Amino acid sequence: MTRNLVLMAMLVSGVWAQPVGTAVIAIRDARIHSASGPVIAKGTVLVRNGLIEAVGDKVTIPPEAWIVEGAGLNVYPGLIDPLSTWGQPTAAGAGRPTQAPAPGPTPARPAQLEQRIQTLDDGGPEERPSNTSWVRAADLLDPKSPALVSARNAGYTTAIGFPMTNVFAGQGSAYNLAGARAGRMVVGDPVG
Fold first, then answer.
1. Other beta carbons within 10 Å of 69
2. Angle CA 18–22–28, to nearest 5
3. Tens of pLDDT, residues 126-144
4. Is the pLDDT of residue 102 over 80?
5. Residue 160: CB partners within 8 Å, gap ≥ 6?
6. How far apart are CA 138 and CA 192, in angstroms?
7. DSSP character for 41?
């Protein structure tokens, strides 16, 4: 694991709100997912002056370290975007006023969903305008999206993605930004 990896768990845990003058931070007893090795079930990440100094299950914590209790938490070697649209299809003309949509499939309504919408008459959410609340981001994920490549190159490893159309666009999914098959990229569904 390199020293330049950014730990999103540190941001979520409030590590950057550390006491003034603290140059050493230790996240201990956390489940650590390394970039190139096995998962450490209960380990420590030692950060000195903003750089990762040590990672492992037998790291000695210096007495001057500010300790973050990581029991029950996961530490990942990358950034996580908690409100993303990476890998999701874009709506044509999003953000501009448009005429009523033409009938037929749209990025948020693949052909199977459109057929289902046309055959339902139960008054469910599928028949309400501006509502695709049943659509899951995991079903729309495109592993070949250029946005995923750009995000990975910027240090992001995971995203919580949401569909981009309609007022009630659909359900979010957690997915890794690397992979050739969408089904293998998804790590949680639904998540919001």
1. 12
2. 70
3. 566 677 788 899 999 999 9
4. no
5. 80, 81, 82, 83, 84, 172, 173, 174, 191, 192
6. 12
7. E
**Which amino acid is present at 118?**
Q
Asked, as a colleague might, if the bond just before 63 is cis with ω within 30 of 0, I would say: no
- Helix (H) / strand (E) element for 52: namely strand 51-56
Question: Of the candidates 25, 34, 80, 23, which has an alpha carbon nearest to the alpha carbon of residue 57?
Answer: 34
Domain segments of the chain: what residues? 8-77, 81-188
Radius of gyration of the chain (CA): 21
Which residues, 6 or more positions from 157, have their beta carbon under 8 angstroms from its beta carbon? 76, 77, 78, 79, 80, 176, 177, 178
- Maximum pairwise Cα distance, the chain: 67
* Cα–Cα distance measured from residue 61 to residue 101, given in angstroms and rounded to the nearest whole number: 60
**Rounded-to-integer distance, Cα 87 and Cα 84, Å:** 9
The amino acid that residue 121 corresponds to is D
DSSP 4: T
Q: How many CA atoms lie within 13 A of 14 on its CB side?
A: 7
Q: What is the CATH number of domain 8-77?
A: 2.30.40.10
Query: Mean pLDDT of all residues in the chain?
Result: 76
Q: Return the closest-CA partner of residue 166 out of 118, 103, 109, 111.
A: 109
The answer to whether 5 and 48 are in contact (CB under 8 A) is no
Structure-block tokens of residue 135: 């659509």
Backbone angles phi, psi at 66, to 5 degrees: -85, 120
